[in-house]
Amino acid sequence: MDAQALENEAKSAISGAKTLNELDEARVLYLGRKSELKQALREVRDPETGRVLNTLREGLELAIEQREAALRGADLEQRLAEERVDVTLPAKATQRGHLHLITQVRREVEDVFLGLGYTIVDGDEVEDTWHLFDALNMPPGHVTRSPLHTLFLNGDIVLRTETSASQIRVMEARDPPVFIVSLGRTYRRDTVDATHSPLFHQVEGLAVDKDITLADLKGTLLHLAKALFGEDRRVRFMTDFFPFTEPSLGAAVSCFLCDGAGCSVCKHTGWIEMGGSGLVDPNVLRNVGYDPEEVSGFAFGLGLERIAMLRHGVPDIRMFLENDLRFLRQF
Ligand code: DAH
Hints:
The chain is of the alpha+beta class. It contains 12 helices and 10 strands. The structure holds 3,4-dihydroxyphenylalanine. The site of 3,4-dihydroxyphenylalanine has 12 residues, from strand 9 and strand 10.
């Protein structure tokens, strides 16, 4: 076939291609390795024929390029016309995570005390026995000093059994007045059951200033109880004992379910125990270099799991750590 005839045939095939596939077939047929043109190019012996054939090749390549651009444009037009987005279709629900219930309760408690002008301080989960026991006025033979109760890491280094050590850390570092809460994990060598876990969370509160009294403690815990369990709550105290407070008091809140009438949540007493509290023992104040003649203080410690369990009817403390999504999603 002569060059002119080949060009005519190839160009009509190219311009006649209706799809990218058809165009590709034409490319293979007229410019592929086995095409007549490539065959002829390989056999060229004189410059004039070479020039003619190469011009033909370039012309065909350009024609294919232009046809391809045109087809792609048409293809896009067609897709845009066909693939319309139906904005009225319901959206695919995205799964969102949320805070763990204990974290939610923790933040709630923090908010209550930030509102009262308290500072939130971090304590260390790894403590030494001075800050956890001695400075808190615990006598040498106290049961929680036993390795049966406390997880010892190394010598006098332990995992804290209560957040109370934060009291000592803060008072060592600052002069009164002090109004702080410290929240976080605590560890005990407890056997696991529905109400005991070797890892749980506490909130520790401490207020030290001139003329702090039990009335301040009661008002503060009442405020917290109302925020957590509802406006109608009342608070009462019972005598208790902690080495770091004198007097020591167990704080209870009127039952949020039966309001004191008696039900299964309050074990038919009308009252729910919130935690321990009291006026800071003068020995503790002296241990951190405060003068008990000058300042006084109150302290309290509550379990966050306990608050969450009571308020949300969680029957087993282990559920907080198992990370079963069916449980976690409920809050
Ligand atoms: N640390 C105590 C506990 O873990 C709770 C507690 C009681 C903290 C009385 C206090 C307090 O600050 O004054 O059981």
